[in-house]
Amino acid sequence: MRKLSILFSALGGAAAAYLVSNKKLRAELSKAKTTDDVGKILGKHLQQDGKKLGKDICDFLESDRVQNKIKQANVTAQKHFDIAEKEVRTWLQKGKKEVVKQAGSAAKSMKKTVKKRTRNAFKIKQV
After folding, report:
1. pTM exceeds cut of 0.70
2. Alpha helix locations (H) across the chain?
3. Would you say 60 and 51 are in contact if contact means Cβ atoms under 8 Å apart?
4. What is the C-alpha separation between 43 and 28, in angstroms, rounded?
């Protein structure tokens, strides 16, 4: 619940800053007669400012500086992925060797057990 109150206070602060910084919005809101008018005015301004903000964000993301940072991040991520992949392959190779080793020892053990049981069964049959 604490995070929710922080979120609401941040949204309230953002709304207050938006009202304080937009002189045209304040003038139109002061002339509004009903709450429906207030909602329409706010909606219109938020839509216009949202379009401007979206365009600014697109321009920012398409800028050379951001694109270079994204390329650097991709290179770094690929490098770390390659390192992790090599480590996993190494672990798999070690695991494969261990499995082969354990299978070999299990086969030897099974072979000895079968020989013992066969001898015992042969001895029992003769008696």
Report:
1. no
2. 2-21, 23-31, 35-62, 64-126
3. no
4. 12
Q: pLDDT tens, 7-58? A: 777 767 777 777 777 788 778 878 888 888 888 888 888 888 888 888 888 8
Please identify which residue in the block is written with the tokens 């390659």: 82
Residues, the chain, total? Answer: 127
Nearest to residue 42, comparing CAs of 60, 24, 66?
24
Which tokens sit at 66? 């951001």
Structure tokens belonging to residue 82: 């390659």
HSE (side-chain half, CA atoms, 13 Å) at 97: 5
Q: Which two tokens stand for residue 83?
A: 């390192």
Q: 């903000």: which residue's tokens?
A: 53
User: Rounded distance, CA 76 to CA 80, Å?
Assistant: 6
The encoded tokens of residue 50 equal: 């949202």
